[in-house]
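CO-FOLDING WORKSHEET

Operator: S.A.
Ligand of interest: zinc ion
Run index: 479
Mode: holo prediction, single chain
Checklist:
[x] sequence pasted
[x] SMILES validated
[ ] output reviewed
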Amino acid sequence: MRKSLSLVLLGAALLALDVRAQDAKGVLDAAAQAMGTAGLHSVQYSGTGSVFMLGQNFRPDAPWPRFKVVKYANAVNYDTPALREELVRVDDENPARGGGAGGFNPATGQGGMRPILGEQTQVRQATTRTDLGTLQIWMTPHGFLKAAAANNATASAGRPRTISFKARGKYTVTATLNDQNLVERVETRVDNAMLGDMLIEDVYSGYTAFGGVQFPTHIVERQGGNPTLDLTVSSVQPNGAPTVEIRENAGGGEGGGGGAARAESKSIGEGAWDVTAAGLHSVLVEFSDHLVVVEASSNDARSQAVMAEAKRLVPNKPIRYLVNTHAHYDHSGGVRAFAAEGATILTYELNKPFFERIFKLPHTINPDNLSRSSRTPVVEGVGEKYVLTDGRQTVELHHIRGNLHNEGLLMVYLPRQKVVIQSDAFHPRPGAKPYPTPPQFTTNFYENIQRLKLDVAQVLHIHGGMDPIAVVARAAGKS
Ligand SMILES: [Zn+2]
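OUTPUT RECEIVED:
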């Protein structure tokens, strides 16, 4: 009796699955028909709007900082498949708050610090050779329908209609159709070192016919809950030449986990080392019975390399504190690895609730050490000044008041070594023409050093380099 009931239930389940699969084909066909997808092999579209930099907000609860997009062009070849996106942005926020200027490029003299001067061009190439490249192509409205048709999609029974398929056996990509069977929304989750299984949402509206193909004239992308792109499309060319070519190095990064990193170190004075890994700097400070590390950038892999170097330089002392200068993702993606090791995370008090919240987010796509650990991370919010000392070695944390790069920005002062460690308040710009006026980020940083009456010889930059204080004073317009 029991067995036959199970068989009946199994039969019903199989029938239901079959209906779902057949239904998905019908739903996909109807959508492809309404959208004009079958005859579309490539599309080029252009427009203007805004781009926003993920993880570079002024404070952890603010949206990503905005840049104006004066020119946007995207070419997608669905047959190759490949995609090439080019955008030209200007920094028209006044005042420009938050980060996202990108690394300083000596060839163009751009980036490194906001405000960005003039126009800055960014190019993104994607192919299906990488996870993120694949998603970028298959999350376009027509790309979704083509990929869903080729990847055993399933459809929801109710309204609104949703269709899902699995990309690269790993990412569930889901589209919602509107009443006209047009793709109005595509979403998936990707790994992010900070946010874990991070939601990416593309919302398509204002559909208009271009040569028999329906294409949205308004595109909004959100990542981690806030917009990263808001585009008004002004021109669409279906099946127009030239097509996009695959480049060997195309596809962008894989994000999150990263590969193995190697760390190198050099002494910056008694019991203190500048530790470099993956192009970014951390500082190791030795106390009588423990260690302190300043900054855990990028991701888990980089932090593992820094911790290994710390153990090599000073065996048998635990890393008790990890100092986080600010909550921008390029400076915090490796914090979780230190938390998993049992280090207390020291950050400006404004950032404490943010870290406590994100430490609980699931990391199932690319599990890291903290997600595998049963440890509860300890975050300690620090105020305007916080001192770690054993009587001989001292590390001082000072809030940089009023800096427009980030509201929760700390500088770290090592009085014995007369070194200040700073993030994103000054960038060396070798070969670049100077700013027409000293940038607020640097002027404010230097004024904070003066306010605190710190005796500083050298300034160490988390993004690389160490300069005499006079160099920073000059850049701040104070000498
Ligand atoms: Zn920053």
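REVIEW:
The mean pLDDT is 92.
Residues 153 and 275 are 48 Å apart (CA to CA).
[x] output reviewed
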